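Module 6 notes. Inverse folding takes a fixed backbone as the condition and produces residue identities as the prediction. Think of it as a translation problem where the source language is geometry and the target language is the twenty amino acids. Below is one complete input and output pair. Work through it position by position during the lab.
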């Protein structure tokens, strides 16, 4: 078994670290605050932007998984330093760098998103994410590092709480049979990437040199609107039909005066005001991981939220 280092312990980082530990690998997780040890996982406290300390932490690792991100409203200021540190650690250690990306870099697109589309975003967050990948890919092309980026749509499933669009704003009221509110058009088709599939894809490409040097989309089930997803979740929960209401733009704008997160969402409103669908066929043609069947995703999500709400009150 190999040694692996996971940067970040949010939903994706935690799922990836635990999957690697289940497979018998030696796993080290790097976060700014550290955590108590858990079976098969060592937690280390350090700032991943400190390239010297990060390089020392990843020494001997077969792969580094980049699953961390600065706070949403600080991307422009902090992503460049984090990305440079990750690349420097990968170059110095020789470990493969597996980057978890998103779809912001494409910008608004008519039709399904595929990996061969240009990174044409004009918004700040989209350009930041595009620049992070372009920097790493250039180093790969120079033969200085081995890198792959795995891109996911909005996370959904067990472990996805505060940051998910089908999570904390939706699941607690849904489980009580109450109306839920959503960003954008609740009837626009949207791709939802199941969190355990994200972890499985990251781990799979880390060990396959055919993946390196390019980006791949995580296997994702066909797009469904927020209203359709809420209907499936409510049926599984047995709460009966639940009303779905779009948040009016004026309300979102007013909220942005007080919330940095809501203010930043303005840039990606296009993802929810119109169809936003992901094509993951390239990944599926090359590798083994497939999207978990939707009924299993829905059941696991409802079960996880019920347990979470029961234990937290």
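Target side of the pair, the amino acids:
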């Amino acid at each position: 078994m190999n040694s692996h280092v996971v940067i970040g312990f949010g939903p994706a980082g935690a799922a990836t670290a635990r999957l690697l530990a289940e497979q018998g690998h030696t796993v080290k997780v790097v976060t700014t605050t550290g955590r108590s040890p858990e079976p098969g996982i060592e937690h280390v406290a350090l700032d991943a932007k400190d390239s010297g300390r990060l390089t020392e932490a990843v020494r001997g690792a077969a792969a580094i998984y980049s699953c961390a991100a600065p706070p949403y409203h600080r991307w422009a200021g902090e992503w460049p330093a984090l990305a440079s540190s990750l690349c420097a650690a990968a170059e110095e250690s020789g470990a493969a760098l597996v980057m978890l990306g998103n779809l912001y870099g494409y910008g608004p697109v008519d039709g399904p998103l595929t990996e061969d589309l240009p990174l044409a975003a004009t918004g700040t967050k989209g350009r930041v994410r595009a620049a992070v990948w372009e920097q790493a890919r250039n180093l790969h092309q120079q033969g200085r590092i081995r890198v792959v980026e795995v891109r996911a749509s909005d996370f959904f499933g067990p472990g996805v709480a505060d940051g998910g669009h089908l999570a904390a704003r939706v699941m607690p009221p849904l489980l009580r049979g109450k109306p839920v509110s959503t960003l954008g058009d609740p009837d626009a088709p949207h791709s939802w990437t199941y969190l355990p599939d994200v972890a499985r894809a990251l781990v799979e490409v880390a060990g396959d040199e055919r993946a390196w040097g390019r980006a791949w989309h995580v296997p994702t089930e066909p797009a469904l609107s927020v209203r359709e997803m809420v209907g499936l979740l409510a049926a599984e929960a047995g709460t009966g039909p639940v009303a779905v209401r779009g948040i009016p733009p004026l309300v979102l704008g007013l909220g942005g005066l007080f919330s940095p997160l809501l203010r930043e969402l303005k840039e990606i409103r296009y993802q929810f005001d119109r169809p936003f669908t992901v094509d993951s066929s390239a990944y599926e043609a090359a590798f083994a991981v497939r999207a978990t069947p939707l009924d299993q995703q829905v059941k696991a999500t409802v079960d996880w939220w019920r347990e979470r709400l029961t234990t937290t009150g």
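Reference fact for the lab report: The chain has a mean pLDDT of 93.
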